[in-house]
Amino acid sequence: MAKGGTTSYAIRRMRTSKRADAEQWNERRRACAHALLNRTWISKDSDAEMFYWIKDQYTELRDWFSEYTGFVLILTRTMAKLDKAPLVAQPWMGIPEFREVRDYTFFTYALWFLEGKTELDQFVLTDIVEQVGEQMAAAGMSVDWENYQHRLSMVRALKKLRQLGVLVGIDGDESDWAAHSGGQRNVLYECSPSTRYVLRHFPRPLAQYRSADDFNELIVYPETADGELRRRRHRVFRRLLLEPAVSDRDWHADDLFYVVTQRRTIIDNMQFMFGMEGSRYREGLYFFYPELSGECDLFPTAAAVSDLSLLFAGELRRRLGEQDWFVTEQGTIELTRTDVESVVYALKRQFEDYWSKEHRTMGLAELAETLTAHMSGWGLGSWRRQENGQGERFVVSAVLSRWNADYSFDDEETDKG
């Protein structure tokens, strides 16, 4: 009996160990998937552990992203990158540090310059400026390096390239060059091996694209029923992964049919790869991240304006039966600017003692604009122009109704106060 008992214990321990190993493997896979989805890339120098986790699970990660999104997983000796692109571009998807369209132009042309360099090649800032200026002039675009604003745009582009690790600064600072026209200041750089992986790789020559929507294409799909099904699946997963919330009203009819009929498969796959929890509501299929923090930005954010958004949701809920607001079948609420400012005014009267000084001192119009901009960035609402041309209305997404908030204190804290 003693021998048998020992064997049984050993078997149970082995099974427990296998379960623990499997769970650890799943957690690592999800961590890798989140990192690939939310970072520009994972460098071996800056995050060796994550790089090797991705390398260990490369085949599984590559096959999943290829099957469900069309994203391509690139793995080199120094970095791992998921070559991804949104199906629907949003304003918040740009580079936050950039202020002008010109910044993006210089960023792209600087990458063109770096294409001709090899790893560890050294060069100076004035080399980039000279060749970028000549190339832009040949393309019919004007640039004036004597113009301080143009130099600032180039500085923002170069600083972003340095932040990404594409440019390695050896000596000097771009701001000194911007402050002195005529090239009195310079910066020495080295080229990193990541240069060629910043921009997306397109499946066709760019000359074959005829509209901006054509650039959404990630792969070439065969003109068959299976090819169309794969294209639809990729469209759906790309939006669910790269947009905060997609309501039924935001889907194309064919894609909505896929979302409705394949929701169990979608939920299972999002849970498997990212640990995200999905729920089907009347107004759409939504996903929530169960942890309070992660690789991705999560709503509500740590910014005070997210608190205002939650308060706004609670106030709308309380007023629904009292106000003559237009509520659609999809659960959205259409508000005029006056309506929005009225709700904000009520919140300010009741809660401004708890707000930051910035929000307390804002006028109603400015505060309403700040709030609606934040909500728009998270897919919780958007300004829509009326079909009759009579102004705009802020269409509050039904997903906002999933939150409610208020300031409250428990009895113990109140007594201590």
**Strand runs, count:** 12
Oligomer: single chain
Apparent shape: globular
Order of helices and strands: HEHHEEHEHHEHEHHHEEHEEHHHEEH
Distance between the termini: 65 Å
Poorly predicted segments: 411-417
Could you describe the largest sheet, including whether it forms a barrel? Answer: 4 strands, antiparallel
- What portion of residues is helical? 40-55%
Q: Total helix count?
A: 15
Structural class: alpha+beta
Mean pLDDT: 87
Features:
globular, 417 residues, alpha+beta, 12% strand, three-stranded antiparallel sheet
Outline of the structure:
This protein is α+β, with helices and mostly antiparallel strands and 417 residues long. 49% of the residues lie in helices and 12% in strands.
What are the SSEs and their pairings?
Blueprint: H1 2-38, E1 42-43, H2 48-56, H3 58-68, E2 72-75, E3 79-83, H4 101-115, E4 122-124, H5 125-138, H6 148-164, E5 167-171, H7 174-179, E6 188-191, H8 225-242, H9 253-261, H10 263-274, E7 277-281, E8 284-288, H11 304-319, E9 326-327, E10 333-335, H12 337-351, H13 357-360, H14 364-377, E11 381-385, E12 392-396, H15 411-416
Antiparallel strand pairs: 1-3, 2-3, 4-6, 5-6, 7-8, 9-10, 10-12, 11-12
Helix pairs in contact: 1-2, 4-5, 4-6, 8-9, 11-12, 11-14, 12-14
Report on the structure:
The strands form four sheets. A four-stranded antiparallel beta sheet has the order 9-10-12-11. It has a three-stranded antiparallel beta sheet with strand order 1-3-2. It has a three-stranded antiparallel beta sheet with strand order 4-6-5. It has helices at 2-38, 48-56, 58-68, 101-115, 125-138, 148-164, 174-179, 225-242, 253-261, 263-274, 304-319, 337-351, 357-360, 364-377, 411-416, and strands spanning 42-43, 72-75, 79-83, 122-124, 167-171, 188-191, 277-281, 284-288, 326-327, 333-335, 381-385, 392-396. It is globular, with a radius of gyration of 26 Å. Strand 2 and strand 3 (79-83) form a beta hairpin. The chain contains 15 helices and twelve strands. 49% of the residues lie in helices and 12% in strands. By secondary structure, the chain is of the alpha+beta class.
